[in-house]
Design goal:
Elements (H helix, E strand, L loop, with lengths): L1 H6 L3 E2 L10 E2 L6 H10 L3 H7 L5 H13 L1
Antiparallel strand pairs: 1-2
Helix pairs in contact: 2-4
Length: about 70
């Protein structure tokens, strides 16, 4: 499991932050919220307009993480 988590260097979990849900490193934005935002804003330009702090690697890792968890 640890080697898989090395692939997800932008995804962290901490029991004291949003009840241990996987989040984008250094934020309280959960992987689930990133996926919900993708459903609302399928156009990446719109998504980046709404969440300018999220970059493509955050999005890519969030999408991949859902398959490993």
């Amino acid at each position: 499991m640890e080697s898989i988590m090395a692939v997800f260097d932008r995804i962290t979990t901490n029991p004291s932050i949003v009840n241990g849900q996987p989040c984008i490193r250094g934020t309280r934005m959960t992987v689930r919220r990133v996926l919900e935002a993708l459903a609302i804003y399928p156009d990446r330009h719109e998504l980046h307009s709404e969440y300018p702090e999220r970059n493509d690697e955050d999005i890519r890792q969030s999408l991949a993480y859902q398959w490993y968890s």
